[in-house]
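Quarterly update, task 2.4: magnesium ion-bound model.
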Amino acid sequence: MSEPPTDTEAERHRAEMAKLKALQDAEVARKTIKRKGLLIVYTGNGKGKSTAAFGMMLRMLGHKRRVAVVQFIKGKWKTGERAAVAAFGNLVEWYTMGEGFTWETQDRARDIAACERGWEIAARLLSDPDLALLILDELNIALRYDYLALDTVLAALAARPPTQHVIITGRNAKPELIAAADTVTEMVEVKHHFAAGVRAQIGIEF
Ligand code: ATP
Ligand code: MG
């Protein structure tokens, strides 16, 4: 067992922490923007993009603010997240537009039609000043395959209510979207169980 700290050690620690706190407070004081709707992008090949977005949705729901999700590509699977947030009633709107993965549908015209329907809903939500958080899941995929026009999407994002937060997920985020975003995180694949032959697991993948 380690010895309890001596009085001088405790005092040194306290002084160090006080100095850190002063630095931290000064740093915070330099940030002058109190409230801003953020555009957040989760991209990259590693696992965790959509679930990071849903984690933030849970955080927002804890504050009893309205959230909405539009899923552009995936469709068929019944996911745990969708079932779970049903418990929050009309604080959550959830639209799953996709017909499935692009390699499942193998039908470009149908994929485009599904994305366009999704975009119609997204555009309405992007002009809703009471919506705190909008998640556009897999929108990057729709943009990558030119299922939706980048200019149209960027214009609607720019014109949204100034306090609305938006999260966009999906691999291969377009550089123009990254440029427009406030926060961008790239999930890097270090390892994924799929490569070792493990199928999608309940509660982990869906
Ligand atoms: P999640 O929904 O788990 O956060 P994601 O949004 O980062 O994943 P997507 O590109 O949307 O990833 O892919 C969704 C599905 O593919 C998930 O079931 C996820 O586990 C799986 N997946 C994600 N990354 C990889 C990977 N690098 N290799 C294999 N499967 C992956
Ligand atoms: Mg995803």
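Highlight for this quarter: The chain is about 40% helix and 15% strand.
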